[in-house]
Write a structure and sequence with these properties.
CATH superfamily: PEBP-like
CATH topology: Phosphatidylethanolamine-binding Protein
Structural class: mainly beta
Oligomer: single chain
Low-confidence stretches: 1-14
Number of strands: 10
Number of domains: 1
Order of helices and strands: HEEEEEEEEEHE
CATH class: Alpha Beta
Radius of gyration: 16 Å
Number of helices: 2
Mean pLDDT: 92
Strand content: 25-35%
Length: 171
């Protein structure tokens, strides 16, 4: 038992990161104010507030990725938001303003910034994974216009901890 506890402490599992939103409950339907406004959807397209705890003390920046693995894209899913170079010490994002230095990459809607859920009518409800990553680097040093997939690759390559919150939405 002592060896298991020691292993958990050394691995950081005892201090796991946790991601929360005041408007998106885990496994619950995402409210209309966050749904995309376009492609046949008429939501508010408001980025949800997010906050996290338990980040490693040695995190040099953060990234937030929002992905729909259920999108009918032939297996690639759909990137709804990619934000990176979020400064160390940040533990929350508001719905209106991002911390100085934060970079938003292009989504699969074709532009940077948050794009809310908007699955095809009649599909089963899609899962939307909101993931915050604590990174070992202060800046990802990506080229301008880097794709969401390249950003996701670099985020995962530099991640030292992460937390996920999943909401659902269907129409």
């Amino acid at each position: 038992m002592i060896h298991l506890l020691t292993a958990l402490l050394l691995s950081g599992a005892a201090h796991a990161m946790e991601l929360k939103s005041p408007t998106i409950a885990p496994g619950a339907t995402i409210p209309n104010k966050h749904v995309f406004n376009g492609f046949g959807c008429s939501g508010g397209n408001e980025r949800p507030e997010l906050s996290w705890t338990g980040a490693p003390a040695d995190a040099k920046s953060f990234a937030v990725l929002v992905h729909d693995p259920d999108a009918p894209t032939g297996g690639a899913g759909w990137w709804h938001w990619v934000a990176y170079d979020i400064p160390a010490g940040t533990s929350a994002l508001s719905s209106t303003k991002l911390p100085e230095g934060t970079v938003q990459g292009p989504t699969d809607f074709g532009a940077p910034g948050f794009g809310g859920p908007c699955p095809p009518p009649g599909d089963k409800p899609h899962r939307y994974h909101f993931t915050v990553h604590a990174l070992k680097v202060a800046k990802l040093e990506l080229p301008p216009g880097a794709s969401a997939s390249l950003i996701g690759f670099m985020v995962n390559a530099n991640s030292i901890a992460k937390a996920e919150l999943t909401g659902i939405y269907g129409r």
